[in-house]
Amino acid sequence: MSRCKFYDYVDTNGINIIKAELDGLGTKVKARITAKLNALEQMEQADWRSSRMIEVLKADKDGLLAVIAEFQGVQHRLLGYYGPYRGECTLLAYCKERDDKYIPLSIGNTAFNRMAEIQANPPDRRIRHDFR
Amino acid sequence: MISDKEKQLRDSLTNKEYREALAIEHVNTTLAVQIRKMRERVGSQTDLASLLGKHQETISQWENPDYGRHTITTLKKLASTFDVALLVKFIPFSELVRDMLSLSEVRLSPPSFSEEQNHVQALISEVSGLVANTEDVDVYLPKPIDMLITASTAVYPISPKKTERQTERELVNA
Known about the structure:
- Chain A is about 30% helix and about 30% strand.
- By secondary structure, chain A is an alpha+beta fold.
- In chain A, strands 1, 2, 3, 4, 5, 6 and 7 form a 7-stranded mixed sheet that branches.
- Chain A is globular and about 40 Å long.
- By secondary structure, chain B is mainly α.
- Chain B has helices spanning about 5-10, 15-40, 45-50, 55-60, 70-80, 95-100, 105-110, 115-130, 145-150, 165-174.
- The longest helix of chain B has 27 residues, at about 15-40.
- The radius of gyration of chain B is 23 Å and the shape is flat.
């Protein structure tokens, strides 16, 4: 019986990159992602995969998960990972997926680099997810 | 005391377009999760599809949080199949935020009528056992119907309540 709270990646200037990305999306897409993050936080973590709101990534993105929201034929994805501490899932980067291709293509590397930054200095490089 | 998350959700409602979208997405997400969780008690998507005379793909759509085109007729049929109540109502946005913050396991996977009854019966047996084991012979034993009502609220006061008889005795002793 464990639940997980979402955290957002913060860059070296202290900017919440995830909030900035979500604020740049259309109202409906942002609302869809927010509703999902809210529901996931209150569900058992063991239940996340069958909820069809997240996907555990494999191959070159092994170790990452994606919170997925499909809107008008486009998949919007927030890449994240479980950590840095128990009961936390930190959102690292936003991207789109179309025809099995990530846009931008290098988003996996970006996510892994950010994960390493957080792991090296958790207090300064991640903040509780902003639901505004 | 209001949590940061509640405050943030409330703050986000100032934009009309956003609050309308958030309300819709909350319903879509919650419905999809509820349908999946209740369906898992019945069996596979194919099992539910045969019960309802639908295709498995339709059930899969209903369980998709991005689908969002459930009709009230469909929801009524599902409520009947799962033996749960369907409640559709208009609410103020302040209540929406409270609803968003209270997605308990029971809310996401509501028990059927018979499951609820079994749960209440189990509680009654448990509580009756506890009460019978107390040494105080004057202990108040509520009637099953009282216990049913109390247990259905999921909170039953284990400590015995004062009965009228006890109160009278105290008055006599005084």
